[in-house]
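--- STAGE predict ---
source: upstream dedup step, 1 unique chain passed
mode: sequence only
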Amino acid sequence: MRRNKKESKTLRIIKGIAVIVFWLAIWDIVTHFANASLMIPIPNVRQTVSGIVHFSTQSDFWFSVIMSILRISAGFLLALVIGFLCAVLSSYIPLFKALFDPILKTVRAVPVASFIILIYLWISNRYIPIFISFSTVLPIIWAQVESGISKTDKSLVEMARVMGMNDRQIIRKIVLAGVKPYFTTAAATGLGFAWKSGVAAEVICRTKISLGNILWEGKSVVEYEKVFAVTAVIIVISIALEKGIKYLLERRKNYD
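--- STAGE serialize ---
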């Protein structure tokens, strides 16, 4: 059994590498033909990798990476906590839901770019990526957790009460257990949105010491090798963080 699991894991890794190699080859082929008719050539795989290697030797770049991660993670974590609490309150207090549901729908509907420009008038640009990440993830967490609570089996709760379980045990073993899959999915999805919106905020606001600002500088001086290299780094970090949070939440689930 253990040997079969190792073999299947090896096959998944080989399959994943093959897919990546395939699309990198497509990228090189497309750039080869497209660049023949473009004034500003699209960087190919070799040039992008060269850009990443160049950046990796610069301490300023890694400082920008760390600052972007800290900003976006701060907004994301705030959204997890506040979104969860708001979902609980709106599930059990009708007045809370009636008051704040319009705000939640408004936040969902406003485009990220518009939101960034609007709050730029009142918030320092160093904090805008945090706020944008928070406001992007909050509706996702809120809606998913509220959905999970609403789908709690009422008959199962009544049965638990008959069996002598107290409110704390019911919340922990029935309500929270039912909400966990919704919360895990929302957190993994929300992290991707947090990164996209957070970096977009850094680009638009020219946030100092950030990946978004490096993207802006690359675009301004038409150094698209820099733009592609930083974009590749952003994608890798986003995937790594998403995998990390899924692992932590699944580990917590198995521990419980």
